[in-house]
Design a protein that fits this description.
- There is one protein chain.
- It contains 21 helices and 27 strands.
- It is α+β, with helices and mostly antiparallel strands and 731 residues long.
- Strands 1, 2, 3, 4, 5, 6, 7, 8, 9, 10, 11 and 12 form a 12-stranded mixed β-sheet that branches.
- Strand 19 and strand 20 form a beta hairpin.
- The longest helix is centred in the last third of the chain and has 19 residues.
């Protein structure tokens, strides 16, 4: 009992005061460049006494603590609490990795080329990482905040001083000199020129709370080293994690035109006896030569490690509150998580957007679009987060949201765009309603009324690993389908799509459903697979593992990958194809609706159509000619016309074969003829070589078709469709 009580007291002392005295003192001596003998001489004690402190055999008396503080150049409180290093000794600096002895050169980080300089890609990767590192024990969501901060004038000067810009500038200059010969150098050169010519610098900070933080040693295996020191290493917390390649972190540096990211982490598990303000910076530059010395590429911003040769290598340090504030890394609470500060953020991919939404502030003085406009970046972040993480932000019944996200924009600390909490019900209303209905148990088997959500189980047959024949088991995924019940939902992105997601509820795959019945009401569908279908679902864990291996580095689809082939078999992807076929078939069945009257349809669509009919013969005095009696048409996702037509046939023993002809209405001249991509019989007729043939005695028939977009001379939305039935071959 006595030993247990002593251990409990020791643990409580460790938590309350920080690091154990011995290891803490040993590190302070290294930082200060003092030996144990020199400290013993200053304290007028024996070297054996100092050694006993460091090895933990004894601790100094309170009165001696005062002398130790004086010797280390700090206050006595720091010696008592030991929650931070003293400020004596080696200063914060930049360490640049020396060039390779064999003369090899890395002209950039290859991992960064897996992604574009795109804030939407950054949002997807960083939010996925935060979801993967969420602390699950308390049941709360992980909270992620994106802050765009434009610095100018004195604020910019202060920040550059904090990151020791004068020490970095020779390296940037060396890169700029060789910028013409390689890509990374050109990006960096443009970033530096923008900062000086326009007198601004955009910071993009990503903070997460209720996450694990970058725990672990600076160099040994752990999350800190995986992010800060290594490439292509992924140490995610659970098998349901989204990431698996260790590439996602590269988006942080890819989004920085300067290749510079600063990090401040609050740890969920203490390291060196403390948890708050663990700070490090990493710079990604290509090979360069400065003052005759070659440098390999990366550099780190931190405190020189006294254990490294010549104390040159920079490691993380425990910063004070003033330092993190000057570095724009101050966190709003002591809740565990990490803050990543992207220095010199730019959004090159935004140039691909339609420029109709640009205002004067998104175009510079020379008329060029601005890839560093914080308003546009704010909008694109909100859009991407709502599109990719709506499900993770949705709760209902007993299921809580996994994620909360907000975005704000500042200029020199002043609000430019107020903080916006991303609301999934506003960004993806129909899908959010469908998922909430599933959580609350209000789904139905069939869609009979507007606003209902239909649920259906679809099987995923999991293969045996190692190339063995057979099936491990069948996982039942959950398919949810709902129509678009309101005007807001009709603007819920592309219609008739299936959003597929697994354990962390990030949208992995978005795809349309082919061969839908023409005239189908617009809908949205959600597929829940793996743990997203419920942690108690049979083979949920195995489905997570299988589908995670089927995702490429972008995690935006499921299909053939090298890992899938190696761990299962080269044909394992066919199980995913079978799942897709099951999903598409179930969707088509759920959205099928009763036959409509031939005159039903939207007024706006009827105005865009012209039905040209032939007069009915008064009496069948020979072969009878069918006439077009009704037409239902929609514009497909690819811009094609999709039609369903009804044909009325006079009474007669012989019926003339007819050719449907699709044309575009024009004000003058001949109407351009469109080709058919598909023409199929529905009832009362047969289709062969584009000709409708009718059995004797048939009075009504129906067929459907879709036009070939490549034959359209102009965009469909700018035209009107004319459909005719012509006898014979339709010439």
């Amino acid at each position: 009992m006595r030993a247990a009580r002593g251990s409990e007291e020791k643990n409580r002392w460790h938590v309350d005061t920080g690091e154990e005295f011995g290891p803490w003192l040993a590190r302070q001596l290294k930082l200060a460049g003092k030996t144990q003998a020199e400290l013993a001489l200053e304290l007028d004690l024996t070297r054996a006494a100092i050694s006993a402190w460091i090895t933990g055999r004894s601790t100094p008396r309170p009165t001696v603590m005062v002398d130790i503080a004086k010797a280390l150049g700090t206050d006595v409180g720091t010696v008592h609490t030991r929650t931070t290093d003293t400020q004596a000794g080696l200063p914060i600096t930049w360490y640049h990795r020396p060039g390779y002895p064999d003369g090899g050169r890395d002209l950039g980080n290859a991992a960064a080329f897996a992604f574009d300089a795109d804030v939407q890609v950054l949002a997807r990767e960083t939010c996925q990482n935060s979801l993967d590192e969420r602390l699950t024990e308390n049941g709360r969501p992980v909270r992620v905040r994106y802050t765009l901060h434009e610095l100018t004038g004195e604020t910019l000067d202060t920040f550059r001083e904090a990151i020791l810009w004068n020490d970095l500038f020779p390296h940037y200059s060396a890169v700029s000199e060789g910028a013409g010969s390689q890509k990374v150098g050109r990006v960096v050169d443009a970033g530096v020129r923008d900062m000086y010519e326009k007198g601004r610098l955009v910071l993009l900070r990503v903070d997460d709370y209720n996450a694990s933080g970058l725990v672990g040693d600076d160099y040994a295996d752990g999350k800190f080293a995986a992010v800060v020191r290594r490439q292509l290493e992924s140490l995610k917390s659970g098998h349901g994690a989204g990431g698996s390649y260790g590439l996602g972190k590269a988006t942080l540096w890819a989004t920085s035109a300067l290749g510079l990211v600063l990090i401040n982490s609050t740890l969920s598990v203490s390291h060196e006896g403390r948890t708050e303000r663990r700070v490090i910076g990493r710079l990604e530059l290509p090979w360069r030569e400065v003052d005759g010395e070659p440098y390999a590429g990366p550099a780190w911003f931190g405190r020189p490690d006294p254990d490294s040769p010549g104390a040159r290598v920079a490691r993380s340090w425990w910063a004070d509150e003033e330092t993190v504030a000057r570095l724009h890394l101050a966190r709003e609470s002591d809740e565990p998580g990490t803050s990543f500060l992207i220095v010199g953020a730019h959004d090159v991919a935004s140039l691909e957007e339609n420029g109709s939404d640009l205002d004067d502030e998104t175009i510079d003085d020379e008329g060029a679009e601005d890839t560093r406009d914080i308003r546009r970046m704010h909008r694109r972040l909100v859009e991407a987060l709502g599109r990719d993480f709506w499900a993770a932000m949705t709760g209902g019944g007993t299921r809580l949201p996994l994620l909360e996200v907000s975005v704000r924009a500042l200029r020199n600390g002043e609000v430019v765009v107020p903080e916006k909490q991303v609301d999934p019900s506003a960004e993806q209303p129909a899908r959010t309603r469908a998922l909430r209905a599933h959580y609350e148990g209000t789904t139905v088997d069939r869609l009979l009324e507007a606003g209902q959500v239909a649920a259906r189980s679809v099987p995923l047959k999991l293969p045996l690993s190692g190339g063995a024949r057979g099936t491990l088991g069948t996982h039942q995924a959950v398919l949810l389908v709902t129509d678009l019940a309101t005007d807001a939902e009709s603007r819920d992105g592309a219609k008739n799509q299936v959003h597929s997601l697994r354990g962390n509820r990030m949208t992995v795959k978005t795809a349309g459903v082919p061969n839908l019945p023409l005239g189908t009401n617009p809908f949205q569908a959600v597929l829940l697979v793996g743990e997203a279908a419920g942690e108690s679902a049979p083979f949920a864990k195995e489905a997570e593992e299988f589908l995670r291996a089927a995702e490429p580095p972008e995690h935006d689809r499921w299909g053939q990958t090298e890992e899938l082939s190696l761990r299962w078999s080269p044909s394992a992807y066919r199980r995913i194809n079978a799942l897709t076929a099951e999903v598409n078939g179930a969707v088509r069945e759920l959205v099928a609706r009763p036959k409509r009257g031939s005159r039903e349809g939207g007024e706006a669509l009827r105005k865009a159509l012209t039905v040209k009919t032939r007069p009915k013969a008064k009496a069948p005095s020979g072969p009878v000619v069918p006439v077009l009696d009704g037409l239902d048409a929609t514009v497909g996702d690819d811009g094609e016309w999709r039609i369903t037509a009804e044909v009325s046939i006079p009474r007669g023993d012989e019926i003339v074969p007819m050719a449907p002809v699709a044309q575009l209405d024009v004000r003058s001249g001949g109407r351009p003829k469109l080709d058919w991509a598909e023409l199929v019989a529905v009832e009362g007729c047969e289709v062969a070589d584009g000709i409708l043939r009718f059995a004797p005695g048939t009075r009504r028939a129906k067929f459907r078709g879709s036009t070939d977009v490549t034959s359209h001379p102009v965009r469909t939305t700018l035209t009107r469709l004319v459909l005719e039935l012509r006898a014979g071959k339709g010439e």
